[in-house]
Design brief:
Two copies of one chain form a homodimer.
Chain A lengths: L8 H13 L7 E3 L6 E5 L3 E11 L11 H17 L4 E12 L4 H15 L5 E10 L4 E11 L14 E5 L4 H13 L3 H8 L2 H12 L5 H9 L5 E4 L4 H12 L2 E5 L7 H10 L3 H7 L6 E5 L4 H11 L3 E8 L5 E5 L2 E4 L11
Parallel strand pairs in A: 4-5, 9-12
Antiparallel strand pairs in A: 1-2, 3-6, 4-6, 7-10, 7-11, 8-10, 9-11, 12-13
Chain lengths: 347, 347
C-alpha cells in the first residue's frame, strides 16, 4: 500500500519550465499558470470559442512509432483546425497530461516543443492545465480558446440547398502518409511500394501526416468576408464530416468525385499500392483541410479572392435537399457516399 | 491489424443523450455541443476564469471500489472548488473522456449523473468536449469556465505580512473518510475502528470524502466584499496549499495548531485509530475548503458577516515575513509545518 503521489515534486519543476518557455504575456491575460484558475479579460463585445480534443495512447498515437514532438504538434493542430473551421483567432491553451512512469522527462519536453511549434505562428499562450501520473498509458486533453467578433462565426448549420461545396488543399494525403509510416515498419509489401514511389512523394505524404497545417487564415478570411454559409474541418474524413454539415443544416449533398483535389503524391501512392485515390480522399481523416459551403452568387468573388491570397480551394459539389441524401457522382452515375469513420492508427 | 475506431458510433448516441440531459441554454451561449467549437458571447467587460483537472484511473480513483457517480461528482467539485477560490461564478463545462471497453455504458451515464448533480446548483452547462476509446484505463479531464466582474478576483499572491489566515469548514474529514472506505474493504483492524466509531460519525466522514462541497458562495462573498487578500482551495491539503499562497505572495506563515477546525467525527476517528487528528488536518487533501488571508482590520466584519450568513470560518494563524518560513505553533513551541503531498487513493 505505497502511497501514490498524484503531484510528484518533479511536476512543479515541469510547470516552472513550461511557464518560462510557453506561457507568454498577452494583453488580455490577467493570470496565467500558477493560480487556481487562469484569468482572461474581455473589454469589448466578443464571441469566445472553446474546443477540446482528447488523445489516448494506443488509440490516437503509438509512443513506439511516433515521436513525442509530432504527437504534441498534431494534438495542437487538431484543436487549431477546429477553431479554423469557426473562423476564429486562437488565443489561449490549457492542457491535461497523464504521464506513465516509463515516459522520460525528455519525451515530455519534446511533446511540449511540438505543441509550442504548432501554436507559435498564432501567438497562442499556454495559460493552464493539470498533470498527473498515469498507471497505464499517456493521455492528453487540450482545450483551446479563441475569439471572433460578435455575431461573426462559421457554423455547421448554415448550408442551404443550391450552395456550392468547397474544400481547401488536397485530400487523402494524411492517410497515405500514415500507411507509409506503418508499412515502412512492418510488411514486406512496403518494399514494393517504396520502390515505386519517389522519395519526394513519400516525404510529402509523411509530412502531411506528421506535420499538417491548420487553415486558420483561410477560416478567418471566409468568416470576416461572410463568404461561407457553413464550415467544418476535415478531421474524420470527407465522408463523415460532410455528413455533419448535412445533419446540422438539414440538407443533402452531391459530391462530384472527379473534382476531388488530389495531390500528385497521393495519386502516385494510390497507383503504387493499387488502391483508389478517391477512396483515400473520401475516408482519409486528419487532413485538417476546411470543408465549407457558399451561396452560388459568391462563386466568382470566392475563387478570385482565394487565388489572389494564394489559398487553394476546390469546388467539389452542391448542397441538395435533405431527401436527396448524401450522394457521389462520377461519370454520370450517382451512388451513396460510403459511410465511414476514420481509422486513426492501426495496431 | 483491426482498425481502431476513435469515434465509435455509440459515441454519437452518448453525445445526443448528454446534450438533451446536461446541455442547457444559457443567455450567453451561442453554440453548445454539436459544432467544431462551443461559442459564448460576452457583451460587458468581464474576467473569464479557466481551470482544468485531470483524473486518471488507478491514481485518482479506482473503478473497483468507487461508484462512477461519485467519481463524476468529485471531478466536478475539484473544478468548482478552484473557481470558488477565485471568487468566480461557474458557468460552462467541457469534458474529455477516454473510455476502456470493459466500462459499461450505464457506468458512463452514472458518471455524468454525478457530474450533473455537482453542477446543477450553479446552473453550469455542458457546452462541449471529446470522447474516445481507451486501450488502458479510464481518463477524464474537465475544463470549467467561470466569470467575475472585471478587476475583482481572489488570487494566491495577495497575502501581506500581518494578515490573518482563515479556513472554511473543517479539515481532515475527507482523508479520514477515504481511510474508512479503504479499510472497510481490506484489513482486520478496521473492525476495531468501526466498533469504536459511531455509525453517524462514520457516515459523516465517508460522505465528506465522497460528496464534498465546493465553497462557491463563500468565495463570491469574500471576493465581492474585497474581504480576502489571497485565497486557495484545499485540494492538496493545508500544508501544501498554504505553501502555494506563501510562495506566490512572497511571505511566510505561522499556523496555530490548536486552532485548526476539526469535526467531532474526525476527532472520534483519530481517537479510534490512535492517530493524530492534527496530522489528518494538515496533510489530508480533497477537503475542498477555502484557505484565505485577510487584513487584521477586516477581522470583525469578516467574522460577523460569516456568522450572519451561516458560513463556518476559523482563524488558524498569521502571515509572517518570508524569512520566518512556514511554521506551526502549539503550546508555545514552534516547528516547521511538515511538507507533504496528498495521497489520493492507495492501492
Amino acid at each position: 500500500m505505497a502511497p501514490r503521489m498524484a503531484k510528484p515534486l518533479q511536476e512543479f519543476a515541469l510547470i516552472r519550465r513550461l511557464k518560462s518557455q510557453f506561457a507568454r504575456p498577452t494583453p488580455d491575460l490577467v493570470q496565467g499558470i500558477g493560480d487556481d484558475a487562469a484569468v482572461v479579460e474581455t473589454t469589448v463585445p466578443i464571441w469566445w470559442h472553446f474546443t477540446t480534443d482528447l488523445l489516448a495512447e494506443g488509440i490516437h498515437f503509438d509512443l513506439k512509432s511516433a515521436a513525442p514532438r509530432s504527437i504534441g504538434y498534431r494534438a495542437a493542430i487538431a484543436n487549431l483546425s477546429d477553431l479554423a473551421a469557426m473562423g476564429a483567432t486562437p488565443r489561449h491553451l490549457l492542457i491535461s497530461l497523464a504521464i506513465p512512469k516509463q515516459v522520460r522527462q525528455s519525451q515530455i519536453y519534446d511533446f511540449y516543443r511540438g505543441l509550442r511549434e504548432a501554436c507559435r505562428p498564432y501567438g497562442v499562450a499556454l495559460i493552464g492545465g493539470d498533470t498527473s501520473a498515469s498507471k497505464t498509458g499517456l493521455f492528453l486533453s487540450i482545450t483551446l480558446i479563441g475569439t471572433t467578433t460578435k455575431r461573426r462565426a462559421l457554423f455547421r448549420h448554415g448550408a442551404k440547398v443550391g450552395d456550392l461545396i468547397y474544400v481547401s488543399g488536397t485530400l487523402g494525403d494524411s492517410l497515405a502518409g500514415l500507411r507509409l509510416l506503418i508499412n515502412g515498419k512492418t510488411s514486406r509489401s512496403s518494399e514494393t511500394t517504396r520502390s515505386q514511389l519517389s522519395p519526394f512523394h513519400r516525404q510529402f505524404l509523411i509530412r502531411r501526416h506528421l506535420h499538417p497545417t491548420a487553415r486558420i487564415a483561410e477560416g478567418q478570411w471566409l468568416n470576416t468576408g461572410r463568404l461561407a454559409s457553413a464550415a467544418i474541418d476535415l478531421s474524420d474524413g470527407l465522408s463523415g464530416d460532410l455528413r455533419h454539415i448535412c445533419e446540422e443544416s438539414g440538407v443533402g449533398a452531391e459530391v462530384e468525385i472527379d473534382h476531388l483535389p488530389l495531390s500528385l503524391a497521393c495519386r502516385a501512392y494510390a497507383k503504387a499500392r493499387g488502391v483508389s485515390p478517391v477512396q483515400l480522399a473520401i475516408t482519409g481523416g486528419e487532413d485538417y483541410e476546411l470543408l465549407f459551403t457558399a451561396p452560388p452568387r459568391f462563386r466568382h468573388t470566392l475563387e478570385q479572392q482565394a487565388r489572389a491570397r494564394g489559398y487553394r480551394i476546390t469546388r467539389i459539389g452542391t448542397i441538395r435537399p435533405k431527401k436527396f441524401g448524401i450522394q457521389m457522382t462520377t461519370e454520370g452515375r450517382t451512388q451513396p457516399l460510403p459511410q465511414t469513420s476514420y481509422e486513426h492508427f492501426r495496431s
